[in-house]
Amino acid sequence: LALYFHIGEREEKCIIEDIPSDTLVVGNYKVQRWDLHIHDFLESAPGLGMFVTVTSPTSEVLLSKLYGPQGTFTFTSYISGEHIICFQSNSTRFAVIAGSKLRIHLDIKVGEHFLDESAIQAKDKVNEVNIRLEHLIEQIHHVTREQEYEREREEKFRKTSEETNSNILWWAIVQTLILISVGIWQIKSLRDFFISKKLV
């Protein structure tokens, strides 16, 4: 996931990432500040830091740390589900004058384990193959976890659909029984009325 978004200097912005359990997440970001003179974003925002907070689906805080105008944060998910990643600048300016616009470039990699190419080149061919194999095995484990998570979600969705269909069927049966009961009661009431008036 690679994106950018705009926030105010004292504003908090959150994104939601659906992450399988036991998965490493690596995020890289860079902050740019709007310049009123050149009417464009500066290359960086020196002196400005970002609070990064990561919350698990059970509202447990996995990460809460202050970084600089650009940085890398990592965390590991312990359970699968929607994790909330929030950003807020550490601007100390008052809200009245802290109207400067910030642009945050964000790149999030889920389950990625990166190869250090310089380290690989320094080793002999056998070690290079070993490192690449380890990387491949790690990626296979990640894909397997992703598939298991998707299967769990699909099973949960199927159960919910079946329960909903069952409820709809029972509701239709109850409605039919009520209609039949009301019809029989109306017929009996009319019959009794006609008999009492000696029309039948």
Automatic annotation (TrEMBL):
Keyword annotations from UniProtKB, A to Z: Coiled coil, Endoplasmic reticulum, Membrane, Signal, Transmembrane, Transmembrane helix
InterPro entries (alphabetical): Emp24-like, GOLD_dom
Transmembrane segments: 168-187
High-level lineage: Eukaryota, Metazoa, Chordata, Craniata, Vertebrata
Pfam families xref list: EMP24_GP25L (PF01105)
Biological source species: Pheucticus melanocephalus (Black-headed grosbeak)
GO cellular component terms, semicolon-separated: endoplasmic reticulum membrane
Ranges of residues in domain GOLD: 12-110
UniProt keyword Endoplasmic reticulum present: yes
UniProt feature coiled coil, ranges: 119-146
Membrane topology designation: Single-pass type I membrane protein
Protein family (similarity comment): Belongs to the EMP24/GP25L family.
Record-given protein name: TMD11 protein
Subcellular location: Endoplasmic reticulum membrane; Membrane
Keyword presence, Acyltransferase: no
